[in-house]
Amino acid sequence: MRIIVAGASGLIGTAISRSLRHSGHDVGTLVRRPPAAPSEFQWNPAEGYIDDTALKGADAVINLSGAGIGDRPWTRSRINELRNSRLGATRTLTAAMGRLDAPPAVFLSQSGSGYYGNAGAALVREDAPAGSGVLAGICVDWEAAAHEAPAGVRVVTPRTGVVLSRSGGALGRLMPLLRLGVGGPLGNGRQYWPWITLPDVAGAFDFLLNNPLSGPVNLCGPETADVNSLVAQLAAALHRPAVLRVPAPVLRLVMGKLAEELLLASQRMEPAVLSAAGFEWQHPSLAQAAAWVTGRGPED
Question: Is there a contact between 221 and 279 (Cβ–Cβ < 8 Å)?
Fold first, then answer.
């Protein structure tokens, strides 16, 4: 397949692009700078511009573009940037598809577990309603923008959970502390994080390209875990203690809304659609995921 990836330089995009090329696909990427290779095509989603030759003849488009959720404090302008970077990129892509006589057959457009807001301990499947808050509002609009793709394009909106990686990602700041034995749970630790390893994210996107699913798909591991369990498994895999809890009031004081929605919110997400479709995880259990993250399993 010829696949165009937007947001290919990020943690997830790099892993997905590498995995797709390894599987024999022809992968092109969208870049904001002048192209440096035949597989690169220039775009400027903030201005709605894209080189229309990028999507010509493409079988699929993968949209991972958007400003980093946890990279900076959530000021009013930053929240607007989080929203606009996602909606602008998605609408630039759907508009480009609409200008083609033969648009791509598949559009995988990233969403997030934040769609469900703070759902507590309730098990949430793809048919659960949207929650409230900044992230939920962004995800609702983000998914709606993806469905502006032309009729006949199969649209999938993967609601990706906390991606576990050996470097960077959600654990980028926590892992060095755990390796030193000075890390610990965040808040009371009873909030659920829908985790998934980076190789399984890449595998799931490949699976979604080739499987006739459409609409929202929860991207997470099949085993649910709260933060206490997640941190305990990682610490155990590192043979380190994890007792220095960071209280919720401290997180709220330092990080504000970002802490409330990104670290303290609970989403006990179930990958019902992926499971029913027969997807096979490389790391289906938290113990396997922790072993991989801490370097006791193959790289990918």
Answer: no
Q: Is the confidence at residue 242, as pLDDT, over 80?
A: no
pLDDT value, residue 243: 66
Q: 3-class SS at 40? A: strand
Helix (H) or strand (E) holding 274: helix 272-277
Reading the block at residue 293, the tokens are: 């993250």
The packing angle between helices 134-146 and 76-98, to 10°, is: 10
* 120, burial (CB in 10 Å: exposed 0-12, middle 13-18, buried 19+): middle
Separation in Å, CA 167 to CA 6, 283, 285: 21, 17, 20
Separation between Cα atoms, residue 221 and residue 228, nearest integer Å: 17
Look-up of token digits 């709260």? 226
Give the rounded distance of the alpha carbon of 77 from its chain centre. Answer: 22
**Band of pLDDT at residue 168, cut at 50, 70 and 90:** low
Residue type, 108: L
Query: What is the reported pLDDT for 43?
Result: 97
Name all domains of the chain by residue range, CATH numbers in brackets.
Answer: 2-293 (3.40.50.720)
Percent of residues in the chain assigned helix, strand, coil, to nearest 5: 40, 20, 40
Nearest CA to 118 out of 259, 8, 300, 294 is that of: 259
H or E stretch covering 89: helix 76-98
pTM of the model: 0.92
Q: Which two tokens stand for residue 204?
A: 């799931």
